[in-house]
Design goal:
The chain has about 850 residues and is of the alpha+beta class. Strands 1, 2, 3, 5, 6, 10, 12, 14 and 15 form a nine-stranded mixed sheet that branches. Strand 25 and strand 26 form a beta hairpin. Helix 6 packs across helix 7, helix 12 runs parallel beside helix 15 and helix 13 runs antiparallel to helix 15. The longest helix is centred in the last third of the chain and has 30 residues. The termini are far apart.
Length: about 850
């Protein structure tokens, strides 16, 4: 996700803070001898194997010694440069500290070259720069980093440096807690760590992953804890691992003996208050008056006030890393971090007669928080729990634009939290709240012919999804939102055009928000370079983006985007309808569900995909199953392609060989049949004396002309038309009308060939004045009428209003021909006197006059 730009006012505020903090505590680097209280240990000079070196260097020694009572943390590092890459990656020293309560003392910076030391320690070598790595998240911490960029570092050099940081955050009083890491991201040849503490201080230890054994001893009246290891392999973090998971070996140390001690400490530094003054007191009075004693309405009003009117901004310098500011101050300045907003909300709720307490949360550990020793360091977030009409309700005041009614409020899956209530001695399992859904419908409507495809997108967000999209819309201008939405679809359709502005409908009472988009898509169909077919393809990116692609070596739990649920539907309306079989796919797992359904009703195709995550990570023993499911879903289930050719357009002509040869064979067979009929011997014909063979003339010339035109028209239609074009034959592929169209199309081709042969046969009969012409030409006219009528009726049934006017004209023309020419051939004297020649032509004789007399 792209980070939001830091507002100018925020930068100005931070500049002011930096100025005052610098005046109050100027960060400097001191130079002093090493402490005298350090433990000694045996040196170790073996290098790590060359194959284990990363980034061109490794640590020959990592030493850390802590003297709790002196508030001193001593570190001693020896870094071995083994290649040119190590010169680039390992030639600088950087130490972070908080000058508001800490001081940095350097004891040594030595570069060893060819066994000879070079002293590089000088205060002028250091540049002190404010960290503020969290400033983009609106958090100012007040920490600094002392940088020493060493010059003239060469391959083979050893960089040795030692320093001590003294002081501790006064917010913890005399209590001590921290993590001791016994593994790093680089290989370490020798690691040594120790803690010196007063005998009266009871330290609790808990180890994670593989760590060396703790060696406990008494030294100079102090309790000493030591850990030492050799040839330590590196550990690594991964981008998609859960926050509670780490492969590093480390030890958690705390002298808090119970969660109640943490509660007591937190209540002492962040006590609830109901004694307000100034603007906040007036606001609470107004809220009480507006809600008239209705607890749920008061609760809603208080939550909305803190979430929406108090912006998130944390100045967490020194003790304010854990101490919240006074609620009056937070309300007046209208900003605060999670603990500021939580203490404000809990206090306002209590003032309205709603019992409420702060809740400490670990956003990393979540449900696994109970695996750690009691310690304030476990937590990185604060929220609130309220008792509204005897019902516990958890609220995160840092979420903005939450809507809904009553106490129905989304609360993230934080798993477990520590409720800051007097006497509480345990973590509280936080119940899951109802989660929302994204319901997205993309409706495409394909016009007849080759026009633009219309696209309407209707997306409905509910509950937490509505909260998120509401905040996103509020953070961007409408033009920026419309641009980003258009760019999303432009990835698939570069020429897409927005028809209108985005419509937003927000039902705050139901916490449901709907966006409506309208587009024209000129390039909906793409021509396949291999088949030259017009294709349209869809891919469910909304779901694909949620599926993590894991390599086969991944052997750690994988973080997933819980909660997430989407119901994504693509509908495509085609003028000719669809002819597809319904198909379904379903995958149900403990951590996720996927279902897809492809179906069609009438003229509409439906592609429906449903996906949801049911927990926040994939366990290690389910990774193989997850990989297989992701591969199957991404490769086989999310895409759909269909072809459609509303017009041939500029598609290259492709000969339909089977149709072409079938028509030729059919025409030859018809020709053979015509020859056979023509040569069928006529029984001897007896003419009256005086009968003569009339020549062609009169209206028969029009008949000859009409038969000639019919033959040529059918021949041209077959040869230069579309009946032998494979693209036309497949133009309704994958549509509901595909089979019906192909049957009708094939029937038209063969009937056209039959009419062509039939017209030519009748023309030959006419020119030869054959006696069988009248009955055969009447048959031609009747057949043409039946064919054109049936063709029109069936085309109308299949394509409805898409039938061309020429089809209706052909029926009308056939009716006129039948009405005029069938009676003519039945009753005309000229016809009876003209078409009298038998086969063979001399197979006739005149009446015998003597016999008749």
């Amino acid at each position: 996700m792209q980070l939001k730009p830091i507002p100018i006012l925020l930068l100005m505020l931070c500049a002011v803070i930096l100025t005052f903090s610098a005046q109050a505590s100027v960060p400097v680097v001191h130079i002093s001898p090493a402490p005298t209280w350090l433990n000694t240990y045996k040196p170790y000079d073996k290098m790590i194997p060359a194959r284990d070196v990363e980034n061109g260097y490794f640590y020959q020694l990592v030493e850390e010694q802590i003297y709790i009572e002196k508030q001193a943390d001593y570190s001693h590092i020896i870094r071995q440069i083994v290649s040119e890459a190590g010169i680039q990656n390992g030639s600088e020293i950087s130490i972070s500290f908080d000058p508001s309560y800490q001081q940095l003392y350097f004891h040594q910076i030595t570069v060893w070259r060819d066994g000879k030391p070079q002293n590089r320690l000088s205060t002028d070598s250091f540049k002190i720069i404010a960290d503020e790595k969290e400033l983009s998240k609106f958090i100012y911490q007040g920490t600094y980093t002392a940088y020493c960029i060493l010059s003239d570092i060469r391959k083979g050099d050893k960089i040795e440096y030692a320093y001590t940081i003294t002081g501790k955050n006064p917010i913890f009083g005399n209590k001590y807690c921290r993590d001791i890491y016994l593994q790093a991201g680089q290989s370490i040849a020798h690691i040594y760590k120790s803690i010196l503490a007063a005998p009266a201080r009871k330290l609790n230890f808990k180890s994670f992953n593989k760590v060396p054994k703790t060696i406990t001893s008494d030294k100079n009246g102090l309790k000493c804890y030591e850990w030492e290891d050799f040839q330590v392999q590196p550990a690594h973090d991964y981008d998609n691992q859960p926050g509670w998971y780490t492969s590093y070996g480390y030890i958690q140390i705390s002298d808090y003996n119970s969660w109640q001690e943490v509660v007591d400490w937190a209540l002492k530094i962040n006590p609830l208050t109901t004694n307000f003054k100034g603007p906040l007191a007036k606001q609470i009075a107004a809220l009480k008056a507006a809600t008239g004693g209705d607890k749920e309405k008061y609760f809603r009003g208080a939550v909305k006030m803190v979430q929406d009117e108090i912006r998130y901004m944390g100045i967490e310098m020194g003790q304010y890393s854990h101490r919240a500011n006074n609620p009056d101050k937070v309300y007046n300045q209208r900003y605060g971090d999670c603990k500021d907003k939580s203490l404000l909300l809990a206090s306002v709720l209590n003032a309205g007669g709603i019992p409420a307490n702060m809740v400490l949360i670990s956003t990393d550990a979540k449900a696994k928080t109970d695996q750690y020793l009691p310690s304030p360091y476990v937590f990185d977030h604060a929220t609130v729990v309220a008792n509204v009409n005897s019902k516990p309700v958890f609220i995160d005041p840092t979420i903005s634009y939450q809507r809904g009614a009553g106490i129905n409020l989304y609360y993230p899956d934080y798993g477990k939290g520590l409720v800051l209530k007097p006497g509480n001695n345990q973590l509280t399992a936080i119940p899951l709240t109802q989660t929302g859904e994204i319901n997205c419908k993309e409706n495409y409507k394909v016009p007849e012919g080759n026009g633009k495809v219309s696209l309407d997108v209707i997306t409905t967000y509910t509950l937490n999804e509505a909260d998120k999209i509401r905040e996103r819309l509020a953070s961007s201008s409408k033009s920026e939102t419309e641009k980003s939405y258009l760019e999303y679809y432009a990835r698939s359709y570069p020429k897409i055009e927005a028809v209108d502005s985005i419509t937003v409908k927000d039902d705050e009472e139901k916490n449901k928000l709907t966006t409506i988009e309208h587009y024209w898509v000129p390039d909906f169909f793409k021509k396949d370079s291999t088949t030259s077919k017009n294709e349209a393809s869809f891919y469910a990116d909304y779901i694909s983006e949620q599926l993590a692609t894991l390599n086969n070596k991944s052997s750690y739990p994988v973080l997933i985007n819980y909660p997430y649920a989407i119901n994504y539907t693509v509908s495509v309306v085609l003028p000719v309808g669809w002819n597809i079989d319904e198909s379904k796919t379903s995958i149900k797992r403990d951590a996720y569900n996927f279902a897809s359904k492809i179906s069609a009703t009438g003229d509409t195709l439906f592609l429906n995909y449903k996906f949801s995550y049911l927990q926040n990570y994939i366990p290690t023993d389910k990774l193989d199953e997850y990989r297989a499911d992701v591969k199957k879903i991404k490769n086989n289930e999310l895409s759909y392609t269909f072809t459609y050719s509303p017009g041939l357009g500029d598609q290259p002509y492709k000969l339909n060989y089977w149709m072409f040869f079938s028509i030729i064979v059919f025409a030859l067979l018809m020709g053979g049949l015509c020859v056979k009929i023509y040569r069928t011997e006529t029984p001897e014909v007896l003419f009256e004396h005086g009968a003569s063979f009339k020549p062609l003339g009169g209206w028969l010339i029009l008949i000859a002309f009409g038969l000639t035109l019919s033959f040529l028209a059918m021949l041209i239609t077959l040869c230069k038309g579309t009946y032998f074009d494979l693209n036309k034959y497949n133009s309704h592929l994958n549509t509901k009308t595909d089979y019906a169209f192909k049957i009708l199309f094939t029937s038209e081709a063969f009937c056209s060939a039959l009419i062509m042969c039939y017209a030519l046969f009748c023309l030959i009969l006419l020119l030869n004045k054959r006696d069988i012409l009248p009955r055969f030409i009447i048959g031609l006219y009747v057949f043409a009428l039946v064919y054109y009528t049936a063709d029109y009726v069936f085309a109308k049934m299949i394509f409805h209003d898409a039938v061309s006017e020429s089809a209706a004209s052909a029926v009308l023309r056939s009716i006129v021909v039948c009405v005029i020419w069938i009676p003519y051939f039945k009753m005309s004297w000229r016809v009876k006197q003209t078409f009298i020649i038998p086969y063979p032509a001399n197979n006739y004789r005149y009446e015998d006059l003597n016999h008749n007399s």
